[in-house]
Amino acid sequence: MKIYRNMSEDGKEETYGRLFCSQELTTGIHGYLIFLSVFNFLLAICSSLGNILILIALHKETSLHPPSKLFLRSLATTDLLVGVISEPLTITYWISAVRKRWDECYITFFTSIIVGYLLCGISLLTLTAISVDRLLALSLKLRYKQIVTLNRARAIVLVFWIFCIVCSVMHAHNSRITTWYTHITILVCFLTSVSSYTTIFWKLHRHETQVRGNIIQPERSNISSSGPLNISQYRKGVFSVMCLQLAVAVCYFPHGITTALWTYSGQSSATIVLRQFTVTLVYVNSTLNPLLYCWKIREVRQSVKEIIRETLCCPQVTRLEP
User: Of 193, 194, 196, 129, whose CA–CA distance to 161 is shortest?
Assistant: First the structure.
């Protein structure tokens, strides 16, 4: 099998796009591309419907703290855009490769890369913001709702979107800038999330120790389970967010491995097919997240149940008295 090496350090994605959108590397993989196109079409429908349902549920839900709910809505919005924009673009360049429309293939591939950088960046930043938000809820206690306000959360989300849009669009001018932005963003998000959860579990462990010693010295307990912050409910919320981040790690990690394999080992038809399967796994995350919301977040689950019940049940007909 013929191997293709990188032509230059700057422009690896462009090199990959040109190689993918070529006769040499796509001749024997049409069956895989057709299968992935059909599968991703179904996946896009599930992702779009699921995240629309979650957004409606979050809009109706009033018990969640508004800034926390805003971060979840931002995350669900990026997942919705994956189903509405990213997956159709990917399907288009797969089908274009099968039909040997190389110009269309490359244009849609290049566009999907920019959109992918944008949505993945916002998802990672939003998940990191949620982890910091959970840490602040534990650390600030009574001051949490005064400091973490809806307007400040909106400003943070707006900065995320502007930053990711600018860095993603820069890919068209200089792909190295976007590559460095991606690496730095992943590193910062990873370190911030790990630091936040480490601090959270350390504080919770210290609280449990204080509660055990509360039998002898009750005044030493700084956090009361009957106080403004319900520790049991808070712990469930932390684990819920961790499940979302774990799902992202599981779905994104194989794509990172195949990208490194392509970068340092060379390109072949087998490498390209493997990379397309890992791209599909990344898209699975956008379909999986709504299920995780319903499973791990009680308020969202109850709201979704009400929406489904109202949608499926026939409206009651008012009987007229004779």
Answer: 129
> What's the whole-number mean pLDDT along residues 84-95?
93
123-137, 191-205, 218-232: which has the minimum mean pLDDT? Answer: 218-232
What's the CA gap between 14 and 175, in Å, rounded? 8
Q: Which residues contact 29 (CB under 8 A, 6 or more apart)?
A: 269, 272, 273
Measured distance between the N- and C-terminal CA atoms of the chain, rounded to whole angstroms:
83
Buried b or exposed e, range 15-32, using 16+ CB within 10 angstroms: bbbbbbbbeebbeebeeb
Mean pLDDT, residues 136-159: 91
Burial 63-95 (b: 16+ CB within 10 A, else e): ebbebbbbbbbbbbbbbbbbbebbbebbbbbbb
Structure tokens belonging to residue 95: 């089908």
Q: Which of 95, 82, 30, 121 is nearest to 280 (CA)?
A: 82
CA distance 253 to 187: 14
Per the CB < 8 A criterion, the answer to whether 137 and 127 are in contact is no
- The Cα–Cα gap between 133 and 80 comes to 23
pLDDT tens digits along 176-215: 777 788 888 889 999 999 999 999 989 888 877 777 766 4
Residues 6 or more apart whose Cβ sits within 8 Å of residue 92: 104, 108
Q: Is 195 left (phi over 0), alpha (psi -120 to 50) or beta?
A: alpha
- Residues 75 and 123: beta-carbon distance below 8 Å: yes
